[in-house]
């Protein structure tokens, strides 16, 4: 359609070479509007994220996904407008960092050094603690049994998602360090997954560990291990929940958390796991932060991401024009 509009500016009586020039100019303009997203993802992430409906919508909006060949130098590929990645390893991080230095015109989602903060649960949650929002999301001091034990390293592997529930202090000796300990808080068996894509925020409910009664605490001893609590099959959005449990965290709180964490972490693609202390309306706990989570499970992610990619390119274009004006 745009091509036909460009042709309408050419006089029908013009010479063929003039028509050729006009058509070439139209094609060049169309090519310039294509946003090329190079991706370096695991096969599992490709399957869950680059779904046919998403690729089709992106193509209709002028966004093209191109696989990055890890066996070739990154600088020899492209050109890219955006590089989307979720691979691990020091070698890959160095490749990306070098690429960022030599190709400042490309947006890398996200900087590898920034992602490293989320690979350690202690430094990850310290960012939230430093925000001093205890009146808004809960208290972090004075741990009381039972305790949730999570691996210190959060590298996206199956093992890093395992957690244990320790009901007594003697059972803590059975756990394998390094670990992060969190006080278990009754939360109605529901957690809130807060997905963040740039400035967009989307919240879904997921089933979580059930509440623990005082009677159970007096009788149960030892350690209970859970391979992975949050998964696609555990969606609670359509469940018949108590309204006090189902009520989403207040939007202003989520917006403040997202804004501050984007700034502190230097990331634009992540999610928060948040729980509400059962029996309260405003006691919330941030229990985990994940980089580039399973967005394929987020309703409407296709539209959110296409809008996000386009906004990144438009923002960079505006910034480039502003710099050129200053130089003129």
Give the structure's gist in a few sentences:
The chain has 328 residues and is α/β, with parallel strands linked by helices. 37% of the residues lie in helices and 21% in strands. The chain has a 4-stranded parallel β-sheet with strand order 2-1-3-4. The protein has a 4-stranded antiparallel β-sheet with strand order 7-5-6-10, with no helix packed on it. Strands 9-8-11-12 form a 4-stranded antiparallel β-sheet.
Detailed description of the structure:
The protein is of the alpha/beta class. Helix content is 37%, strand content 21%. It has helices at residues 2-7, 16-32, 43-49, 52-60, 90-102, 112-115, 121-130, 134-137, 214-219, 243-246, 251-265, 301-327; strands at residues 35-40, 63-67, 82-85, 107-109, 147-151, 163-166, 179-183, 190-197, 200-207, 223-226, 269-276, 284-291. A 4-stranded parallel β-sheet has the order 2-1-3-4. A 4-stranded antiparallel β-sheet has the order 7-5-6-10, with no helix packed on it. A 4-stranded antiparallel β-sheet has the order 9-8-11-12. The longest helix is centred in the C-terminal third of the chain and has 27 residues, at 301-327.
